[in-house]
Amino acid sequence: MATQAPPSGFQPTHRSLPPAHYRRGRRNSLQIWWQEIDRGVLLLAVILMVIGSVSVAAGSPASARRLSTSSKSLDDLHFFYLHLRWQIVALAAMLAASTLRKDVARRLGILLACSMILALALVPFLGFEVNGARRWLNLGLSLQPSSFLKCGFPILLGWLLSLKVRDEELPMLGVTFLILALVAGLLMLQPDFGTTILLCGTWFVLVLLTGIDMRRITIAGVGGVIGVIVTYFFYENAQRRIDSFLGGGSAFDQVDLAKKTLLNGGWMGRGFWMGERKLALPEAHTDYIFSVIGEEFGLLACAVVVVLYIVLVLRIILRQMREEDLFTVYAATGFAAQIGGQAFINILVNLQLFPSKGMTLPLISYGGSSTLATGITIGLLLAITRRNPFIQGERLVLSELGDSR
To answer: Can you give the chain as a three-state secondary structure string?
Structure first.
């Protein structure tokens, strides 16, 4: 029987390809992905995650023994085992998100940011309280909307601010400020002063990047100072933390203990599982993991962690120097400000140089949904900064030829 020829213009799909051809197509896709993503950022993220696994293993006994009761005793590595599971899930989410096309990643980030803002609005009514703050929703598993808001917030701001290029009359600065005000208000209802400060800082960095005039910068700065003052007088949680930082109290005692724990290891550390002060440290596996690193592995190890975060932030920013897409520049810079800001707020708290914020060390601290959210954040960052090196090389050559003429 004669085989009927395919119609004119027929394009075979993956389903019509033989298995060997399909495998070659998948292999080529992975090769393209590997060539386009920022492998430096991926490597730095994985290194920090490995450091996080070792650090949580060091801090897990302190938290497990503190939370053990007469009726339930936790294994010393209880939080380490849980952290490893979440890290595997976060790494898978990171790699999956990094394979997205830039336009798909942009839409996903915008959708994620908008849905998490809606979830924040539900927290005061449907959320449950942990450690005096109502920040979580129970959706079969505990979900902290503010953690996942960070995944898409820089993308949402970057997209809105980049629209101003198309039409200078669009009031995008005002729109982003209203969104920030809404988010800040919802966060302070929980209350979550730390995340509020972090997202306000991210917004301010992106606004500076737009080339805003000095008068508006001054107004924004004064507005920020007024906002902190108002927060101090009207939010008991923020007032307590600032007072404790300045003049003692339970929060001061925690931060003071964290600093002493960090310094207890000297330059080289006490050795793995040899730390003693960490056993009295609350949240040793989360908020004060940096102090555990200092006691067990030494100040030199802390310096390495700080350098890794600096290199990560600089890598993200410097990669944008030759980027032509304004959305990518804004969104990537927003991610750099957000990740770097959270890391250094946590480190400064551990050094007793900043009031306690209840903020984790990204990619290192123990966490469930927060670890997953950080993985998605890095994945979306890798997706929006994907760049074809061959096209970039051609553009560079053409630009140099044009300059020589």
So the answer is: CCCCCCCCCCCCCHHHCCHHHHHHHHHHHHHHHHHHCCHHHHHHHHHHHHHHHHHHHHHHHHHHHHHCCCCCCCCCCHHHHHHHHHHHHHHHHHHHHHCCCHHHHHHHHHHHHHHHHHHHHHHHHHCEEECCEEEEEECCCEECHHHHHHHHHHHHHHHHHHHHHCCCCCCHHHHHHHHHHHHHHHHHCCCCHHHHHHHHHHHHHHHHHCCCCHHHHHHHHHHHHHHHHHHHHHCHHHHHHHHHHHHCCHHHHHHHHHHHHHHCCCCCCCCCCCCCHHHHCCCCCCCCHHHHHHHHHCHHHHHHHHHHHHHHHHHHHHHHHHCCCHHHHHHHHHHHHHHHHHHHHHHHHHCCCCCCCCCCCCCCCCCCHHHHHHHHHHHHHHHHCCCCHHHHHHHHHHHHHHHHC
Give the pLDDT score at 105: 94
Mean pLDDT score of the chain? 82
Owning domain of residue 359: 39-66+73-385
- In this predicted model, what pLDDT tens digit does every residue of 288-320 receive, in sequence order? 899 999 999 999 999 999 999 999 999 999 988
Q: Which of residues 103 and 138 earns the better pLDDT score?
A: 103
In a domain? residue 201: yes
Q: What is the pLDDT at residue 359?
A: 84
How many distinct structural domains can be found in the chain? 1
Specify the pTM. 0.83
Q: Can you give the pLDDT at residue 347?
A: 92
Q: Is residue 7 part of a domain?
A: no
* pLDDT value of residue 15: 47
Question: pLDDT tens digits, residue range 243-295?
Answer: 565 665 555 567 778 888 888 888 888 888 888 888 888 888 888 899 999 99
Asked if the structure places residue 394 within a domain, the reply is no
- Is residue 398 predicted with pLDDT exceeding 70? no
In a domain, 326, yes or no: yes
